Amino acid sequence: MGHREQLMAGAKRCLEERGFARTTSRDIAAAANAPLGTINYHYGSKERLLNAALLETLDEWSEKVRSGSAEPAAGSGAGARVESMWARVVESETTDRPLLVASAEALAQAERSAEVRQQLAEAFERARTTLAADLHGIEGAEDGEVARAVGSVHMALVAGLTQQWLVDPERAPSAREVATGLRRIAQALESDS
């Protein structure tokens, strides 16, 4: 493994252990067992390395919570896929808490960094279409507007659920409560049309 890969692994470890805001270049270099100057050489700055590490980690987290949602058990529909994914999201709120705290810190950084904002916006856009396809079979090419809307709702729910779990995990909703709430909202919307 070269310095570039070592730095990425070290930055991910620092995000988990120290968070986005408290990680220094020296922390990353020490965690990576790499010379301090290699951060700028390979990534341009500590911030760019942390941004890349965070985005890669969030992509891995997204894949983990979505895994299995595209292939439901025989006879199960979108509701089962959605509830299964939400169960994995809720579970990850406990197991991946340091990552979720780091991502919340990074979102705050986006206000002051056009680069972070752009990278996060691109990641969000990819996630929207992926969620719509995985959970509901809605492909962006077929119906891009609907896929984007459905994926955006799931993205909003993930963000809101994460905030609730970070602030008050004892009273944050379970996967079943999220699914029940979505069903009730869908019923109410259907009856209005």
Q: What can you tell me about this protein's structure?
A:
The protein is mainly alpha-helical and 193 residues long. Helix content is 77%, strand content 0%. It contains nine helices and no strands. Helix 1 crosses helix 2, helix 1 crosses helix 4 (46-66) and helix 7 crosses helix 8. The longest helix is centred in the C-terminal third of the chain and has 24 residues, at 144-167. 27% of the residues are buried. The model has no long low-confidence stretch (mean pLDDT 86). Pfam families: TetR_C_6, TetR_N. Residues 24-43 bind DNA. This is TetR/AcrR family transcriptional regulator. Keywords: DNA-binding, Repressor, Transcription, Transcription regulation.
Gist of the model:
This protein is mainly alpha-helical. It is built from 9 helices and no strands. Helix 1 crosses helix 2, helix 4 crosses helix 6 and helix 5 packs parallel to helix 8.
Architecture blueprint of SSEs:
Elements (H helix, E strand, L loop, with lengths): L2 H16 L6 H8 L4 H7 L2 H21 L11 H18 L1 H14 L3 H23 L7 H24 L7 H18 L1
Helix pairs in contact: 1-2, 1-4, 4-5, 4-6, 4-7, 5-8, 5-9, 6-7, 7-8
The coarse overall form would be elongated
* Count of β-strands: 0
Count of discrete alpha- or pi-helical segments spanning 4 or more residues: 9
Largest sheet: none
How much strand content do the residues show?
Answer: under 5%
Order of helices and strands: HHHHHHHHH
- In whole angstroms, the N-to-C terminal distance is 58 Å
- Mean of residue pLDDT values: 86
Task: Give the C-alpha Rg.
Answer: 19 Å
Low-confidence stretches: none
Structural class: mainly alpha
Helix content: over 70%
DNA-binding region: 24-43
Domain HTH tetR-type: 1-61
InterPro entries: BetI_C, Homeodomain-like_sf, HTH-type_TetR-like_transc_reg, HTH_TetR, Tet_transcr_reg_TetR-rel_C_sf
Keywords: DNA-binding, Repressor, Transcription, Transcription regulation
